[in-house]
Design a protein that fits this description.
This is Membrane or secreted protein. This protein is of the alpha+beta class. Helices cover about 45% and strands about 20% of the residues. Strands 1, 2, 3, 4, 5, 6 and 9 form a 7-stranded mixed beta sheet that branches.
């Protein structure tokens, strides 16, 4: 009996663990696409593009002082961790006329970290609303054309999120007011999409070398 128990511990348990984690990789190795073909930022001033970038997309609105805390949370919990990745960027959509307030925010963020991959784009009220509507989420913009939620957009301009979130079911965005949401969910999902692209790149490189 003792020998049998030892054999189970040495051989069966590792096999079960392997199958469990292998299954997890297959099921959770990709972040689900929730909305396809989000428009490029052609109607916005500022120079940022969504194509070929992993983008954290946010809407600051025209009350930027009110959203500063959200920006700081995003900077500390997400940007500082992933901002060094070449294809990663943050794009904040702002109504026209807020350029000076944005520069103040950029300087404040610069006291916490470099801001090379923080981008701000400016558009009309109609353009801001149209871009947000194109995400096709269950969320809404505030009266000031802003929201505390940010969204993960992949290199092909698809909105990524969760279809089986334990709290929300379908999870379109991440609440920058909630450090827990950023720490416990958004950080994991950004890791997944970055790993997805790294694996894809390695596969392409391996195919070329064969």
């Amino acid at each position: 009996m003792k020998k049998a128990s030892v054999l189970i511990v040495l051989f069966v348990f590792p096999l079960v663990a392997y199958l469990f984690f292998a299954s997890g990789v297959n099921n959770f190795g990709r972040l689900p696409i929730l909305t396809q073909n989000i428009p490029e930022l052609d109607n916005f001033e500022g120079g940022a593009r969504l194509n070929n970038k992993i983008t954290i997309l946010g809407f600051l609105g025209n009350n930027i002082d009110y959203k500063k805390g959200n920006a700081f949370n995003l900077n500390q919990k997400i940007y500082k961790r992933f901002g060094k990745f070449t294809d990663f960027q943050i794009v904040m959509v702002v109504p026209e006329g807020e350029e000076e307030n944005v520069e103040v925010l950029r300087k404040d963020l610069g006291k916490l970290s470099e801001t090379d991959r923080w981008n701000f784009v400016y558009g009309s009220e109609g353009d801001v609303k149209s871009l947000f509507k194109s995400l096709e989420t269950n969320l809404t913009l505030d009266e000031d054309l802003g929201t505390s939620y940010v969204f993960i957009v992949d290199k092909d301009r698809n909105l990524r999120g969760r279809t089986d979130d334990e709290d929300e079911g379908t999870k379109y965005g991440f609440n920058t007011t909630s450090v827990a949401d950023l720490n416990n969910k958004m950080e994991d999902d950004v890791k997944i999409i970055l790993a997805e692209y790294r694996l894809s790149l390695k596969k392409n490189n391996a195919d070329r070398s064969n």
